[in-house]
Amino acid sequence: MSPIPKLGSPIPSPMSGLQKLPQCTRCCNGIVGTIVKARDKLYHPECFTCDDCSVNLKQRGYFFIEESLYCETHAMARVQPPEGYDVVAVYPNSKVELV
């Protein structure tokens, strides 16, 4: 006969020893294996895609606009710079010359 837990104490779960899988931001399923992390969000490699055209963004530039993920083409289509300015993509570790 197992002991009866005291009132207010947590009930032991048969799954309490298992770790929860990280969850993919796009499909909401657990991730086993390779994880893509961008802006503290996690993705399956196959789910790391542009919200518009579904091109895979691994090994490419990617852009977050209002919490959505885009390829360079679709990000530039969404961004309207102020009058007289152009949209320019700047990649990490690239050399930028200010004019």
Describe the structure.
This protein is 7% helix and 12% strand. It is mainly beta. The protein has a two-stranded antiparallel sheet with strand order 1-2. Strands 3-4 form a two-stranded antiparallel ribbon. The mean pLDDT is 83. Residues 22-81 form the LIM zinc-binding domain. InterPro entries: PDZ-LIM_domain, Znf_LIM. Keywords: Cytoplasm, Cytoskeleton, LIM domain, Metal-binding, Zinc.
Please provide a brief summary of the model.
Strands 1-2 form a two-stranded antiparallel sheet. A two-stranded antiparallel sheet has the order 3-4. It has one helix spanning about 70-80; strands at about 35-40, 40-45, 65, 70. The protein is mainly beta.
**Would you tell me the structural class of the helices and strands?**
mainly beta
What is the first-to-last residue Cα distance? 79 Å
Q: Number of DSSP helices?
A: 1
Give the H and E element order: EEEEH
Sheet with the most strands: spatial strand order: 1-2
Strand content: 5-15%
Low-confidence stretches: none
Helix % is: under 10%
* Tertiary shape: elongated
Mean pLDDT: 83
GO molecular function: actin binding; metal ion binding; muscle alpha-actinin binding
InterPro entries: PDZ-LIM_domain (IPR050604), Znf_LIM (IPR001781)
Keywords: Cytoplasm, Cytoskeleton, LIM domain, Metal-binding, Zinc
Protein name: LIM zinc-binding domain-containing protein
Keyword list:
two-stranded antiparallel sheet; actin binding; elongated; LIM zinc-binding domain-containing protein; mainly beta; about 10% strand; about 100 residues; 1 helix
